[in-house]
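Researcher: Next entry: Glycosyl transferase family 1 (Allosphingosinicella humi).
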Amino acid sequence: MPQPAHPARAGRGGTVKILLTADAVGGVWQYATDLAQGLADLNIQTVLAAMGPPPSPRQRDAARSIDGSTLVETHLPLDWLAESPKAIADAGRTLAELARRHDADLVQLNAAALAAETEFDQPVVAVAHSCLGTWWRATKGDDPDSPFRWRSELTGQGLALADRVVAPTKAIARATKEVHRLAQLPTTVHNGRSLRPVEPVASHDFAFTAGRLWDKGKNVATLDGAAARLPFPLHAAGPIEGPSGDRIEFNHIHALGTLSDREISSWLGARPVFVSAALYEPFGLAVLEAAAAGCPLVLADIPTFRELWHGVAVFVDPMDANGFAEAISLVVRDDFARAEMGRQAQLRAAQFSVEAMAGKMAAIYQSLLRPQAAATLAQEVAA
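Model: Predicted structure:
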């Protein structure tokens, strides 16, 4: 991407300000608000530009509680729900104007397609949380069909134009580079999560999963098959219907619906076996939450989970319902192994902190800002 048309300013009052996009549909919201809080602790202001369906009252209150952060509900379409390339281009131009209006020093896009046809005045960081191309490759084994291909092409264009591309794992960095034929491998910055302490309760024999249950990439159908073979329940938290009409029904899983963070913490406090059969998972914040609570992990054998949880989880072929049932049952029946796996997962989870994530992102911002703003950022971070 060309250098900014004018030197980036150091925000109002000498403070660096980042325009950060977010959406309330999936894990990107949690990522963005956690990052905004981590950046606030480094004296970096954020403008949270919420796109897509409006945030819930609970999400809105959480975002507004972050010091130095301004929530702007743009009502702009998400790239994967936009009906045309023009809609994405228009959204990009609106964000560019928003960045100018808020005197931002840098723009972080959590959907790279927004940069495909937009010239921002500021440096742009594109974070490859997920995209249609890598999702399609992981779930279907090839490239998107022609009715969807334009979305993937816009993502590739935006990634190529960004000043820096970041991915939450090395696995998704490699997949993104391959699918979109990038000249350079994206920089890996592992996600971090700001978690409340989980109040332990009496341990119970059950399995638990959480996430966008309707998403075929989560492959919850395999877990439904596994649940039929378990002598105890498998509970699942999260929506069963997506914003584009995708829906899943269960025969054996006990669906809990969408739960609050506090409600999920209550379930995790019983230290169930946390299970994921995902075919596609660029990071997996739900797994991190479960690990931080001391839950033993039984996970799909995919590159992302191997990268993050090797040595502390049991891995199963994501299409093997019998394998999941057997692995879950073995963990539940062995109290010592269950406790030790939970302890090891908790130790690993401590490595993925918001402080580490925010510090690494701040270093990337500093490398891209013009000298005055970069010097201001260095002073703020050191303060």
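Model: Note for the record: Confidence is low (pLDDT under 50) at residues 1-13.
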